[in-house]
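note to self — DONT lose this again. spent like an hour looking for the file last time. sequence + predicted structure for the chain T wanted, 651 res
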Amino acid sequence: MSKMIMPSQMSKISILLHKKDSEHVIKKLHESGLMEITKVKNEFFEEGKMNPLVEKCAHYELRLARIIDILKGYERKKKLRDLFKQPERKKLKVKKKNFEEKIQDAKKLLEEIEGIVIKNQEKIESIEETKEELKARVAALKYLSLFNIDVSWLGKSRYTIIKFGIADKPLKLENVTIYSKPIGEKKERKYAVLVVAPVYMEKEIAKLRMEEISIEGKGLAKDLLKEAENELKEIEKKRKRIIEEMRKLYEKKKIELFAIKEEIHIEKEEKEIQIYFGESSFTFLIEGYALTENVEKLRKIVEEATNKKCSFHARKVPREREAPIHLKNPKWAKPFETFVELFSLPKYEVNPTLFIGLSFIIFFSFMLGDAGYGLIIFLLSLLAYIKFKGSEFIKQWSFIGIWLGLGNLVTGFLFNGFFGFGDFIPRFIYHDANKTLYHVNIAGVELPIDAIHKPVIILGIALLLGLIHLNMGFILGVIQNIKRKHKKAILIEQFPWFLLQIGGGMLIGSSLLALWSLNGMEKIIAYALTVIGLAILFKEKGALGFFDVTGYVGDWLSYARLLALGLATAGMALAFNIVAELLPNIVPYIGIILVPVILIITHLANLMIQSLGAAIHALRLQYVEFFNRFYEGGGKRYKPFSISRKYTEEI
């Protein structure tokens, strides 16, 4: 547990080796994934030069990526039912190969399909252009066919001008014959216009407000329309044939394409890393960080790769230094690291992931506080977790959802919340809205605790949770200062608050709230603790210590939002239930049909809105109230130089 409270201990690594061993060492470091390599800054070494083979890798990777992007565009669209199927994750088993062998694999594949793919893509693009032109021609001919004329008549002859176009309204011009036909719907009504005029009126015709359409060809418009429509059908068939060919090619070569691209990318990473090294005439200096627990394993790998012809130096990094951060959390807490990263990773201070995970579930469940909504969240999250195991992103968030759903099932049944203030089942099943969801007495405690009738009890629980949460922050601050050996900081930053809470709590509970009575000695102890706590606080911060006290009280009272949001969720749900119950009386016959529709839509909307609010406020309590007690952040994640294989498996 102690190892999980603080980030993992890191060690600074320095490796000096001969250039001839560098390729083998890089490969071994890449395979092991035990070291983050950083830029060497050393006056005795030059900056590492870019390996010339990087350009070659980038060239083939880019070509493969281009082919993948083209073919991906023609992949068959998934049907709705396929979204709920477990995605297949096939990995191509590959043998260990050297750089040239991998390049040859890429060359061979590109020679086989690159020409076909690019040629087909050009054909499709050409067809698309022709298709758009034909569509425009078909639209124009459809309008012109309304006048039953030969297309060749359009234009200027010796004695006449015939023009065709689209106008917003019927046109009129003296000494000019104009035919108009309405086109389009009423709201978008326009007119197809055919203008026949003597040639000397060319200037007057040009002033007419119409969009002139030029159509080439010879023959009746209706005949040319049929030809254009047939041509459009033919090129569409041709386009579909080529697309089908591309789809089949992608299905056949998809895994191979991604696998070879991945292999080339791995090689590129190994060649690129050289620019981080320090370089001399015959040696490379490699520097970086590794987990202290992995140092000996890393030393063994490097010494074996160089036949012990190297210098390997490791030293533990003091916790105040700039070093990458590695969080060591149990499997269940891993998904909650996202919440820590949303704020900032710890900078060699307490790792708050475990505490955020637990308190986020509790606060969210308290603020949503509905067993019905919890059941929906739980079932949807469980379905996603089972169906989408291949997606790490969905798996992590659905895992969080499962816990949030279970938490709401607990708080919902404790506080009489099931699609409202426990009135859903009583209202629609028992037909008595005044009944509770259930009734049980445990050790003199009546359950459920009805939040709407007994809000003070819920407020008390909320403030108690707040007090526990804030003090957890103080305790973590103490642990952090002990680890850093800042013992004086404990006396100034945490100790006075413990005294103030105990002493002040005793006095407030006795004098203001009348929860208990204090005898003479107890009063003296309470006053003494309060005075000592204030004295330490004001000695360190002067008059500003007063604002620390009021700020702490404000932070504590901020936990009252646990009650407020819970009441908002249940209150809105209750309103929806009442409206749904009244609907059959307001709208006879149809109202009975609308009841389930209204309930489903309104409760789903309420679930989404209130879940968002609960999540935001639960995080706010972590980032403002909780982190304010001990946390600074500013760390950067440990990113070891490692191989990431998504499409291949080396054998």
